[in-house]
Amino acid sequence: MIRTIAIAALLTFGMGGAVLAADAPTDAQIAHIAYTAGQLDITAAEQAIKKSKNAEIIAFAKQMEEDHKAVNDQALALVKKLNVTPEDNPTSQALSKAAADKLAELDKLDGAAFDKAYIDNEVAYHKAVNSALSDTLIPAAQNAELKALLQQGLTLFTEHEKHAEMVAGMLK
Amino acid sequence: MRPFALAAAAALALMWTGGALAADYTIVIDKMAFGAVPEILHPGDTITWQNDDALRHTVTARDGSFDLNLPSKTSAKMTVGAAGSVPFFCKFHPGMTGTLVVTP
Hints:
A: mainly alpha, Ferritin, two-stranded antiparallel ribbon, B: Immunoglobulin-like, 4-stranded antiparallel beta sheet, 44% strand
């Protein structure tokens, strides 16, 4: 009953090319993956706020930091209420490793080169996360409240994707 | 009792706008969406925008006539302006949109 998790999409946007195969994720794993994905974008935003001098990039990064923190706070409150302990898993680990690599890659860049690399990755990252949410995580979620929170996250992150594309277009 | 009656009459007169009492409405923002906009709005009515969402939102008129910044779990009140159709959106999440239709 091994099923390929479509989260492979998460790892194909310049953050590595690994394809994961595993059982359908449990709610505890889904919660961990979703929380991890949010935390990684917060870390990326913190780097951008520190390094960029571009007002649009900084404003975008601050919004990512605030929005993802808010969603993750909701996720933490939900898992506490449901008495679910988020469970680390290969997908979360691969995401963290790929994000760390990307962070190191971006750290070597400055000025316009950094801004472009950051926002391009934000477009790709949100696109990939949204695909994983709609194709895998939301359908696999068993608990109705978790499913609803993921759905709400998808709505929000779709807005982020559009916003990132708009900012990327302004840099060209 | 006469001063009280006079004060009440004055208060009523102040609230009287164009022959109709100004109405107060509340529009709730939650789960990345604006709540329903009142179908009938007149200049001088007030709208309290109540952000129940976990996220910060704005209520921003495309014509620039209003721009409210609403952190999570806050509200802000505005007075409806001149008659016309005013589309609005959230600057942070531009997919969130709505339109105020104000009739004279």
